[in-house]
Amino acid sequence: MTELKNDLLLRALLREPTERTPLWIMRQAGRYLPEYRETRAQAGDFMSLCRNAELACEVTMQPLRRYKLDAAILFSDILTVPDALGLGLYFVTGEGPKFERPVQSAAAIRKLAVPDVADSLGYVFEAVSTIRRELDGQVPLIGFAGSPWTVGTYMVEGGSSREFPTIKGLAREEPQALDAMLDIVVQTTTEYLNAQVEAGAQALMIFDTWGAALERDDYLRFSLGPMQRIVDNLTRESEGRRVPVILFTKGAGPLLADMVGTGCDALGVDWTTSLADARRYTNDEVALQGNLDPATLRESPEAIRQGVADTLASYGKGPGHVFNLGHGVTPDIDPDHVAALVDAVHELSPQYHD
Ligand code: CP3
User: Fold this and answer.
1) pTM of the prediction?
2) Cβ(77) – ligand 1 distance below 6 Å
3) For position 205, what pLDDT does the model report?
């Protein structure tokens, strides 16, 4: 393997000193970029783009050509896992993801089985190795998966949901059946992430977009517990380096204190918790990633620069900060505004490092 030319991300995730704060942007490859829209049109639809290693590699590289980012993230989706479980994923324009066969009863859960990951998700591992080859050591590659709870909400509700009525009903009435379903997702996701590392992923992130919709005890049982069981069985070293693990529960707030105990290396933080508070919750035991409100990107370049300055100041001095948004960049954002953010991090962050 070629030597990594920029390892700022990997060092910051391990709380090692860096000369400036590294950055990447959630959903950095996506519809806000005209070149992404063009490649997606060429692929036909979103899942065909994910299944084509050359095109998935192309859209992964697009934001790196425009911006001085410190990481690439695999272009794929968290819903590849339930698709591999046989639920039949498809996307309806304007409505987001849907499943042909949602899992809505204990009987449906009993029919689920852990798939052969190499077989059903091989296209993802091929994308990972294609991207690694193309990156040629420029920056590290982040692999990812969804948290079992977040993936479970889509599996049970059959698509995007605001209130999660069906899965919360299962949690109340058939909690053991829900545990069993989440366990299938845990086992599949563990194999899936380890295979991404084997194919060349150099850091891993677990996206838990909907964990904070649960009350605390249910969060611990249905969201954090399954993430913990994944973390316990991940490959933590590859190519002679540690493979850092980032957990991100959107809206976690004080739950960040519970998340530290999983043994992850870093936690994602959204904009509803300041990085100063997040540092207190986590006692500087893990690195923090975040947390500018993506809405800031709709403002002027000056306002974006101020937002970056405030975010850096909130974390303060010392290692262990990876700059990011608090959630993904949205399709309406002007690509020049993303450039303003990236430039501001490069210019303003060195003063926070010795
Ligand atoms: O960050 C990256 O650049 C990597 C790629 C990535 C995508 N989805 C690509 C994508 C990642 C990490 C995800 C994660 C994901 N997917 C999450 C967790 C993080 C989050 O955003 O909360 C969730 C909940 C999903 C499920 C999902 N996939 C939804 C709800 C949608 C529809 C959203 C929309 O804007 O229509 C998707 C589709 C999707 N995944 C797109 C992209 C770029 C948009 C597809 C398109 O229309 O081209």
Assistant:
1) 0.98
2) yes
3) 99
